[in-house]
Amino acid sequence: MITRLFAGPLFVVALTVPAILRAADATPDKNTDSKQAVATPPASIPDPTNDALLDSVKFKGRLPSGWGKLGISDSQKQSIYKIQAAYVLQIDPLKKQLSDIEAKRDAEIRNVLTVAQQKALADNASAKVAKKAAAADAKKTTTSDAKPVAPSSNSTAKVAGTTK
User: Fold this and answer.
1) Looking at the predicted structure, is the pLDDT value of residue 81 above 80?
2) What is the pTM of this model?
3) Contacts of 7 (CB under 8 A, 6+ apart)
């Protein structure tokens, strides 16, 4: 199921990445200023509404939340999936760029701390991880140790040796 879900977008990526890389190699890098980190989407990303090759491929994906109740036709679903696949090519590099920027920011923030503060921060982080792992282990042992008790068929069971 998962392979079917990603087969369409992967096909689009496989077709467009070489074109994007060739276009990037062909154009000289005009932006050498490291302070300008704003990315612009590549111009070679296919338009999902009029690409003949994309029309021959049947895409699989997920509709946005609540859209399944709208009575969307199969052709509308395919159009939505094609658009999602095309935008993945723009979104994924931006997500990577965002995570790189956040990592750089976090490193610069940590550099403001003294060595002792950095050590204390690392100790706090490792203690937090250890506490979370211990809680997960405790949860595993309590759920695996608990034995299910079968309800008795006679809720007013008589105790042996007693008579009325």
Assistant:
1) yes
2) 0.43
3) 60
